[in-house]
Amino acid sequence: MATTRTRKPPLFEQFMAYRRFSGGLGFALDGEHVLFVSNISGQFNLWRVPIEGGWPDQLTGFADETVRTIAVSPRDGKIALCADHDGDEFHQIYLIDPDGGWPRQITDAPQVQHLIGADAFSPDGTQLVYAANARTPTDMEVCVRELDSGDVRVVWGEGRFAVPAAWSPDGTKLLGIDFRHNSDTSVYLIDLETGETAELTPHDDDIVFVPGPWAKDGAGFYLLTDEGREFRGLAFYDLESRSYEWVETPEADIDEVSASQDGRVLGWLVNEDGWERLRLRDLESGHGLPDPDMPRGARPHLTGFLPPVALSADGSHAAVILSGPRRPPDVWVVEAETGRAHTVTNSWVGGTREDELVDVELITYPTFDRREIPAWLYRPREANGTVPVVISIHGGPEAQERAIYQPLYQYLLSRGIAVLATNIRGSTGYGKTYQRLVQRDWGGGDLQDWDHAVRWLHEQDWVDADRIGVFGGSYGGFAVLTCVTRLPDHWAAAVDIFGPSNLITFAKAVPPTWRRWMKRFVGDPDDDADLLRERSPMTYIENVRAPLLVIQGAKDPRVVKPESDQLVEKLRELGRTVEYVVLEDEGHGFTKRQNELKAYGLAAGWLERHLT
Fold it and tell me: How many angstroms from the chain centroid is the CA of residue 378?
């Protein structure tokens, strides 16, 4: 008699057998290679691959340093990169020759943050611009380094969180961003010859202005702004008239804009319901170029570092890193004139097939103030009766859950557990009014959004209402702790990854450069102590009933380890079910593959054990 063998679901490690990317992406000066940052080696290092594809060359061999961003010199192809140690976010700057060799560290200040962007090199390649808090720990200032002599001068930014943008084509001027808070930025023009600065976008209300690339003739630059609109549009700013005109104004945010070095091609990304669409335009003719032939997707990030849109110097090719719910991130190269696109990396390692994974459905659910909350719903393919569900809450909070490959979600789905990944109030991508709802209201309206997510789940006939879990990291970790302390009856299991437990101690311990934002972001730890105490999970800690897993990086500079220590200590005193895991060589996120495997493996096992 013939027998049928039941196929076992893949192991957790198989879902995790893929490669991740950081925020570095660009073309080599020859235009024949793409540079990217990936954890192929187990740590995020710099790699180079031909634009036709093939096995990439590894250009850095870091084990404990994490490469975050890169820039390429237009003179000789030299590469600048910034990297930090064990996720401590004290990024240092390195230079590496395009033909290889060991990276040379040019900053050595272990308690200073240095940040470079894709436009860090001057047009003649003799200078490098970056932001650093070397003089005053609370200020990020714009610094220019002469590469031949090593001399450094601060050109702008005292008393601000300032970051540099693009150089003018003649190299005499810089654009700078005054980052006041998430809803308010302004653009400055820095004259490097006279030392004079001028605010180009003065305004009274909260408005976002983000400069993009210059026009080839130096008459102005492209600009992203939400002035007078719910969404960020694309404009061109004319220096002579000190005004701008709109170029593209979709009913969606334009997330990124860049241009080829020759000024011929402009590229930008439009955020359409969480999917990112690449658009290209020939600036000489003014006509749009063909839509790239790529599956829909979105960019992954590493602790907030997103890879830019990259364009080759002659505008013949564009590159983006995109992922989908059943497809891990890969580098895509696009022929600008035809729209033909192909991947030059292959991020699958473990042999998981796309048709074995679950696709996603975009849904909305109603909340207390009649808003509709967008969320990504993942349902198991095969289910007998009702199924458990995990509500996943992203970090930020002013960020967005995208439909990218999430190995934890796919593992849970393979075990019969659904996932509802919410974009509650405060999420980006749905207009500035929606985004601002969470400011100074952590644990307020967002708490009701999570409550209404559970109510919506209870109304679904396929959901087991007694087996609902909650998962999140960073702000999402705060959300988990808020849920289990203030909505304790809803949850059968919970996982908190480096979430703030006490908003007063959290606001006091953030990095020095963040302090200026805290009153608007969350609340001032002194002036708003009563509000923060009332919204802190620690205030309601005795209500916890759900078994809780807490994961923390010992070197986390954003949500410091004492945030988790005080939480776990009190829960243990109360006799609650809690497991605490500290990763000694990690910060705010996971930069080493073995730590990522450990952390997410523990989270997957915890949720599976308590929900099935």
Answer: 22
The residue among 109, 112, 130 whose CA lies nearest residue 121 is 130
Query: Alpha helix (H) ranges present in 314-444?
Result: 407-414, 432-436
Task: Give 575's contacts (C-beta < 8 A, 6+ positions apart).
Answer: none
Cα–Cα separations (whole angstroms), residue 544 to 170, 259, 455, 487: 61, 52, 20, 9
Residue given tokens 């658009």 in the structure block: 279
Task: Return the sign of the alpha-carbon dihedral for residues 314, 221, 91, 557.
Answer: negative
Pairing state between β 209-214 and 220-225: antiparallel
What's the average model confidence in pLDDT over 347-372? Answer: 92
pLDDT digits (tens, 9 = 90+) for 402-420: 999 999 999 999 999 999 9
Contact predicate 487/454, CB 8 Å: yes
| DSSP-derived 3-state class of residue 248 | strand
Contact assessment for residue 138 and residue 516, using Cβ atoms and an 8 Å cutoff:
yes
Contact 207, 225 (CB under 8 A): yes
The contacts of residue 340 (CB under 8 Å, 6+ apart) are: 293, 334
CB 492 within 8 A of CB 467: yes
Q: Output the pLDDT for position 5.
A: 55
Segment 34-70, tens digit of pLDDT: 999 999 999 999 999 999 999 999 999 999 999 999 9
CB 398 within 8 A of CB 430: no
Closest to 233 (Cα-Cα) out of 204, 202, 259, 268: 268
Please enumerate in sequence order all residues whose Cβ is within 8 A of that of 67, keeping only pairs 6 or more positions apart, or say none.
22, 24, 37, 44, 45, 46, 60, 81, 82, 83
Q: What is the pTM of this model?
A: 0.95
Taking only the tens place, the pLDDT of each residue in 225-243 is 999 999 999 999 999 999 9
Residue type, 58: Q
d(CA 571, CA 5): 45
pLDDT in tens, 68-117: 999 999 999 999 999 999 999 999 999 999 887 899 999 999 999 999 99
Residue with tokens 């309601």: 540
Asked whether residue 260 carries a pLDDT value surpassing 80, the answer given is yes
Residues 6+ apart with CB under 8 A from 461: 386
